[in-house]
Design goal:
By secondary structure, the protein is α+β, with helices and mostly antiparallel strands. It has one domain. The protein has a 5-stranded antiparallel β-sheet, covered by helices on one side. A hairpin with an 8-residue loop joins strand 2 and strand 3. The termini are close together. The mean pLDDT is 94. Bound molecules: zinc ion. The site of zinc ion has 8 residues, from helix 4.
Length: 160
């Protein structure tokens, strides 16, 4: 069963240590790793605010009620705990957004993502080179193949 430590290990390894091929592209929102037991979804975005990495925690299945606050928001100390855990990984926190009583919270980091991952995000923004008129919305085999070449994280949920 994955816990937050394993999820952060996997996500941060992908963000900071994984070398991406120079013929792959990565959508700028990055990847998510689920933590179903905790009803959470963690996102690792290579180029968020100010083009620096952002780690996001979301309630995976929010209980929303019209005219009222969500019934199962993030815990009051959850975003702080996430920021603290990221600092324990040797990272520097720039700022945080949202958190309790919302169902989402984000932590902005100082250290830029791995240069080959940033290059892959730049390739995404450049769009399809075969069909420049379709930009990132192309669905041709060349564009999809370029996206498939991205090296994904070692997902902790994949291990028994
Ligand atoms: Zn294309």
């Amino acid at each position: 069963m994955p816990d937050l430590t394993h999820i952060l290990d996997a996500g941060l390894e992908w963000l900071y240590e994984t070398v991406q091929p120079d013929n792959a592209h990565q959508q700028h929102h990055g990847i998510t790793i689920g933590h179903p037991e905790a009803n959470r979804l963690y996102g690792f975005c290579p180029t968020g605010a100010d083009n620096l990495p952002v780690v996001v925690v979301n309630v995976a299945k929010p209980e929303l009620h019209p005219y009222d606050l969500p019934a199962n928001p993030l815990r009051p100390d959850e975003l702080f705990d996430l920021a603290t855990a990221l600092e324990a990984h040797g990272l520097t926190v720039r700022t945080t957004w949202n958190g309790h009583p919302a169902i989402t919270g984000s932590v902005g980091l100082v250290q830029p993502a791995h240069p080959t991952l940033i290059a892959a995000v730049d390739r995404y923004h450049r769009g399809c080179t075969v069909h420049p008129e379709r930009s990132v919305f192309c669905d041709c085999e060349h564009w999809r193949e370029e996206g498939r070449r991205i090296v994904g994280p070692n997902r902790p949920t994949a291990t028994p």
